[in-house]
Structures are given as structure tokens and as C-alpha cells.
Amino acid sequence: MMSADAPAVSSVDRSVVVAWRNAVFAVFALNGFALATWMSRVPAVRDSLGATTAEMGWVVFSLAVGSIIGLSSASHVLAWVGSRRAIAGAVIVGSLGLAVVGLGAATAGHPVLVVLGLALLGGGMGCCDVAMNVEGAAAERELGRTVMPLFHAAFSGGTIAGAAVGALAEWAGASTALHFSAVGAAVVAGVVVSVRFLHLDALGAGTSSSEEAHPGWRERLGMWADRGTLLIGLIVLGFAFAEGSANDWLALAMVDGHSVTNSTGAVIYGVFVTAMTVGRIAGVWFLDRYGRVPVLRATTLLAVVGLLTVIFVPNAAVATVGVVLWGLGASLGFPVGMSAAADDRRTATARVSVVATVGYFAFLVGPPSIGFIGDAAGLLRALLLVLVLVALAGLAAPAARERT
């Protein structure tokens, strides 16, 4: 359900908008593929490092720190070099980090290289995350219909492919150095081609759109005092925590908590991202028919039921059903939050940056908090923290109501 601010007729040639939309799809998908490459091999990296659950929490914490740095600098980078160069540069940095992680894990479990690589990976992906969501919101407005969940479905589709390749690499005993380096090179090549078709920089060159494309620091700072923006940020925070905790810990939680093999854990992570992809594709119809608030409340319920099943049912097969519900429930919070933040064309970029920053706080506090709790009470019980934050996000759902 699009905002009343969305244009009835695009100001950009239709063929340009379609190419723009397709390029955004590609950027989202390639980023998902890169992220899942790391996530699907977490158990292998843990084994290589010989780390405890708490120690892995600190290792993954470097990914979160890098993400926050990339995220907080993204609006400035966008203003300095434009969206195309920001996305391309961020992906190059992130892919280099991925290769360093693979090398560190493959060379007798070198923790310094792994931590450094994860920081670079997080920094690149954090910056790219803001830039591609701003591009997606602008393309959505030009199209005049809901597409943001589909962009995020493309991200999930990329994670499905990345998880599948990761599971295959784990099964085949492939070196993380070779696996991560090959994926990084492929992702860079795909993004460099795709950014040629992004169009936000061209819109920003016009007088009427320049402030929207590159808001000043006073405008960005002012959005931090806006109650509605912060409540949307809370929604994104809760659902990002639900998604991010699965990315960081689901495979390991299934291995340690439900006694499955490493390769099975990678497959179950693939089940999660598949459910998220289905939820994002189907969610467009539900959003257009019922609106954001009812859909967010329904997905909150799905996520809560799924998490309870994973945590408390001592059967791997039934827990996998819970993983499906968890994935469906976590699927729409982030993209709906991005669309809600971008409802006001004039402040879209500033609000998206604030909401994304609040949401990424989940990636900062999530890995170590779950790791610490998991070390004391087990990873499954640690997931209760995710359940609480998802419930709070559901309570904040009215903040995402469509503007009329």
C-alpha cells in the first residue's frame, strides 16, 4: 500500500525506471549472497578457531561494530560520492573482508584475521545497506506501487543461494579461503555492472530533488527527535533482531541445541531464509489488501509462535517447522519499516538513515548478548531475548500506518 506522496505518473522514463528497479533487485540479491556465505559457514569457522559460544559472540561482535561504522557513515558517503560509487565501494570493501575471514579461518584458525575481516565485511555491508534501501525507496516512489518487500525478497533469495552454496561447500570440505574469495569476486563483478543502471544520483542532480538525495546534517539530526521515526526504528529493531539472530546463531543453535550436524544446520538456515523469501513475496499482496499495521501484527504472532517452537520443542523436525514460522514472521518488518520511513518524499533519505541506524543496533547488541546468555543457559534459551524484542516491535506497529 503506497503512500499518498507516491507519484501517480513517474517523472522518469518507464524503461529507465524498470532498469533501475532491476538493478536494485540485483544489488539486494548479491548482498544477500555475500552475507549468507559467511553465515552458512559459522560452525566451520567456530570449529577452526576452537572458540566457545561466548568467544564466538565476541568474534561476531566485530561484524556488528563494522556494520554500525558503515551505517553511521553512509549518509555522508552518499553526499560525498553519490549512490552508485557508495554502493560499489562498499561492496568492494565488504568482499575484501569476506576473503580475509576465509583466509583467517583456513590458516590454522587465525582469530585476528577473522575479526578484521568481519569488521570490513560489516562496514561494507552497513554502508551498502543504507544506500540500497534509499535507492529502493526512490525507485518504489517512481513506480507508484509497493515493491520494497520484493527488493528484500531478492536479498533473501540471495541468501538462499548463498546458504545452498555454503552447505555444499561444507559437505565437500571446501576451504573457507577459496569459498569466500570466489564469492567475493563474483559479488563485486555483479554489483559493478548493476550500479550503472541506478538512477537516484540523476534525480539528485535536479534542484527539486537535491535535498532529498543529500540531506544536510541538521535535517538528519532533527529526525532523531521525531517520535514517529523512532517508533518505526523500534519496529525495524525488533524484526532485524529476529532476522539477524537467525543469521548469526540459527545454524549453531540447531547444531548445539537439537544435535544436528553442521551441514544440516546450514540446510536449516537455508529453510529460514527460504521462508523469509516466501513471506516477502506473498507479503506484497497482503500489504496492498490489508495495510501495514494488520500485517505487522500478524507477522509478529507468527514469529513468536515459531520462536517458542524452536526454543521449547525437543525435536529437530518440529523445531524446523518453528524455523519456517520464525522466517515468515521476520520477513516483512524491515522492508515495511523502510517504506514507512520513506513515506515523506522530502525527508525520506534522512528518515531511512535514522531508522536503519536504530535497526542496526540489533546487530550491535545481538551477537554478544545472545552469545553471553547462550554460554550460561544454552543458545536455545538465549533466543527468548529475540522473542521479547519481536513482541515490542509488534506493539509499535501503528507507527508504520500509511500516510493519507
Major sheet: none
Instruction: Using the coordinates shown, work out and report the CATH topology.
Output: Growth Hormone, Chain: A
CATH architecture descriptor text: Up-down Bundle
The top-level CATH class is: Mainly Alpha
How many separate structural domains?
Answer: 1
Task: Provide structural commentary.
The structure is a single chain. The protein is mainly alpha-helical. The chain has a single domain (14-400), classed as MFS general substrate transporter like domains (Growth Hormone, Chain: A, Up-down Bundle), CATH 1.20.1250.20. It has helices spanning 14-40, 42-49, 53-81, 83-106, 111-143, 148-172, 176-194, 200-204, 210-213, 217-223, 227-258, 262-290, 292-312, 316-330, 333-341, 348-377, 379-382, 384-395. The radius of gyration is 20 Å and the shape is globular. It starts with 13 loop residues before the first helix and ends in a 9-residue tail after the last helix.
